[in-house]
Write a structure and sequence with these properties.
The structure is a single chain. With 120 residues, the chain is an alpha+beta fold. The protein has a domain of 79 residues: hypothetical protein PF0899 fold, CATH 3.30.2320. Helix content is 25%, strand content 33%. The strands form two sheets. It has a three-stranded mixed β-sheet. A three-stranded antiparallel β-sheet has the order 4-3-5, with no helix packed on it. Helix 1 packs across helix 2.
């Protein structure tokens, strides 16, 4: 259910940037979602269709780019995928930190701009 609040935030950010760019419409949004982020693409899309209705972002296409999880061993600095092993596959240490895979952000938006002299 937290996808609703997240999706409303995405819309607010996109609308603010589109207004700053004097856009007439938002056509595409590019989202980056880490493998470890608790974000469900289909839920965001469902809420997007609802919350963006009637705004300049209504009908905009969401594009999701997933980022794989990556860990870094704090003992030997080896970087690895947590799918390989929870302890470090290089030295066996369990002292690791997540360095990728928790992201969730709006990377870019595509807009249409109204031409000068064109009326709304």
């Amino acid at each position: 259910m937290h996808e609703l609040a997240v999706t409303e935030s995405i819309l607010e950010i996109a609308l603010r940037h589109a207004a700053d760019a004097e856009a007439s419409r938002i056509s595409d949004l590019y989202l980056v979602v880490g493998e470890l982020a608790s974000i469900v693409d289909d839920s965001v899309q469902f809420y997007w269709d609802f919350v963006s209705q009637g705004s300049m972002a209504g009908g905009a296409t969401l594009h999701f780019r997933r980022v794989a999880a990556q860990m870094q061993c704090q003992s030997c600095q080896h970087t690895y995928s947590p799918n390989e092993s929870l302890p470090c596959p290089a030295c066996g240490s369990t002292l690791s930190k997540v360095i990728a895979g928790e992201e969730f952000y709006l990377e870019a938006i595509e807009i249409d701009q109204q031409s000068v002299g064109e009326s709304a």
